[in-house]
Amino acid sequence: MTRLADPPARTAKLYALPFSHPSIAARLMLERAGIEHEVVNLPMGLHPLFLRKAGFRGGTVPALVLDDRRIQGSLEISRAIEARGPRGILFPIEPEARRRVEGAERWAEAELQPIPRRLFRWALSHDASLRGRAARMAGFPLPRLAGALMKPLVARFARVSHADDATVKADLERLPALLARVDAWIADGTIGGEAPNAADYQIGTTIRAMLAMDDLRPRIEGSPAAEMAARIVPAYPGRLPSVLPTEWRARTA
Ligand SMILES: N[C@@H](CCC(=O)N[C@@H](CS)C(=O)NCC(=O)O)C(=O)O
Q1: Among candidates 189, 185, 188, 252, which has minimal Cα distance to 221?
Q2: Going along 10-154, which residue ranges are E strands?
Q3: CA of 109 to the centre of ligand 1 (A)
Q4: Which of 54, 72, 105, 238 is the most buried (most CB within 10 A)?
Q5: Domain 95-252 class?
Q6: What is the full per-residue pLDDT of the chain (253 aa) written as tens digits?
Q7: What residues does ligand 1 touch, defined as CB less than 6 Å away?
């Protein structure tokens, strides 16, 4: 009997935003696992509409179509890639080591990942010229007009991520303790090893996003976390100029 050839594996499709650190994490994990993929960069601000149209339930990137399944969220994506194999590509095979990497990844997604997003959204909601620049970088025609139209959208996104003065100030207060935790994981080998794991991608891309922000970089550069992040993402797409009031910035020093 003639055996039908396996159908060709379909190219995975990653829906992303160019400056989105979890989107960059998802792309790097696909590359690490050698999964052929296409990246679809969505227009910032309108991305939830495009995601719904593409059949996703939620409105956030990264969102991935892999083997005809829709997977949304960086934690779900790392697990789907690991499950597809090769085994051990993103999580250690040894159970205790895996538990530590999962814990670090989960913590980083919940505690660390929102910090650069919140600062970026706070900045966008306070600075019209930045909105214009972001619109231009996102490829909108007529960036000044797009920047103006973005104002209500930015206000909405700032609200959902609690990008208000009190929360951004609290993030700045917490930053040294959060970074110390990352440095401790590098020291004990949970992350920062020769072969990056899922927590390296989650943490490294977030720290790299922070290093691209002029208000945060001075507090991070020179640390083991900064060195690890630069290895995970050698060049970050974009840079956020200093936006914080001077007296807030002093809190990170
Ligand atoms: N924590 C989730 C969510 C990621 C997330 O919030 N992504 C942002 C871009 S960095 C987004 O798409 N936000 C849209 C929204 O807040 O509606 C993950 O790791 O995938």
Answers
A1: 252
A2: 12-16, 37-41, 63-66, 69-72
A3: 10
A4: 105
A5: mainly alpha
A6: 445 554 555 799 999 998 899 999 999 999 999 999 999 999 888 899 999 999 999 999 999 999 999 999 999 999 999 999 899 999 999 999 999 999 999 999 999 999 999 999 999 999 988 888 887 777 777 767 777 778 888 888 899 889 999 999 999 999 999 999 999 999 999 999 999 999 999 999 999 999 999 999 999 999 999 999 999 999 999 899 999 998 886 654 5
A7: 17, 20, 22, 47-48, 59-62, 73-74, 109, 113, 117, 157, 160
